[in-house]
Amino acid sequence: MTDSTAHALVEPRLNRRQAAKIRTRQKVLDAARSLFAERGYEPATIRDIAKGAGMSTGAVFANFQDKAELFEAVLTEDMTRLAEVVEAGSTAGDPVRNRLVEALSAGYHSSLDQLPLFQAIVARSWFQPLAAEMRARAATKKLQLAIGAIVQDAVTKGELRQDADVRLLVELIWDSYLSNYRRAAYDNWDAQALSEHIGKQIDVILAGALAK
Amino acid sequence: MTDSTAHALVEPRLNRRQAAKIRTRQKVLDAARSLFAERGYEPATIRDIAKGAGMSTGAVFANFQDKAELFEAVLTEDMTRLAEVVEAGSTAGDPVRNRLVEALSAGYHSSLDQLPLFQAIVARSWFQPLAAEMRARAATKKLQLAIGAIVQDAVTKGELRQDADVRLLVELIWDSYLSNYRRAAYDNWDAQALSEHIGKQIDVILAGALAK
Prior knowledge:
2 copies of one chain form a homodimer. The first copy, chain A, folds into 2 domains: 7-63, Arc Repressor Mutant, subunit A, CATH 1.10.10; 67-206, Tetracycline Repressor, domain 2 (Orthogonal Bundle). Chain A has 10 helices and no strands.
């Protein structure tokens, strides 16, 4: 994923001060993303994030309450972007299996350069306050909806059985998708290997739901 | 899971000093397990573990290099015990789907009282040095072998297709099993709810592998 520019966010009617504030916030976010993507969560310090953004730690704290809030903001931006990549990744006319593999393969290809960030996201999702978990779920919801849209479309078209449990299928695909990042982290699998593997997993998951 | 007693480990030929050493080690492990199971990894301190075991921090460090090593020792003990529970949980003659649900349901029932420990195990599995990951895999391997034995048995008996990819099926079942602990952590699902859900997941995962 590439850094987003602040310009897209600046509406013409903002005054100079508001525009500067938004640019500063985005600079902090981009510096935080770089550091999280390089080191993960724990080793990334506010001091180093401030340094990366070329500002004081005070300026960082003027925009974000703490590292956890900063991390959540990065998570939300990145999941929104990844959902767009996944949505755009598949060709509408293809069989559902291929559409899912194309979409999730696009996801792997666009995110593996930020592997420690992904590891940190999943690790934190297992141990955080309930409120933080609910916000994280809202952020990843978009990605699951993108997977869900493909599965639902296949049901509508009659490629999958009318009584297929779309929600359960999406859950299984999503768990497999996430789980595979561990292969990248510990077994050096590249995006190609992950894509082949998710293909096999999807074949198993869909097998019983395919219309005869 | 209940605390194991030191006695089972003490072979008669050990002299008094060796036996005392093993008892001390087990006391530390049991105190650590209690604290990890109550608080998770980060908030559990060596000081509090020592206090729980009724000894000095020095005595803890005489047995374990650091908290990470202590956590790994707890993980290994608990996964061995959980694998035994899972292995004993299913009835040999039952259909493969039921055997898996029985086994994993036994797993949920015996581990939910240690939920924060489980959350910590999964969270750490996403962010740890490669060597630690390999040791953790060795510890959880027993559980996956217990699942694998049930699946393999069903292939051998012709209940599942001869060309079923046992390894892939076990991976999918395992990922679902673990993933469900999040429902317990954040959505207050009890062991019964988790067992019903893993049943649905197993139905989907096995659907294409069932012999016609």
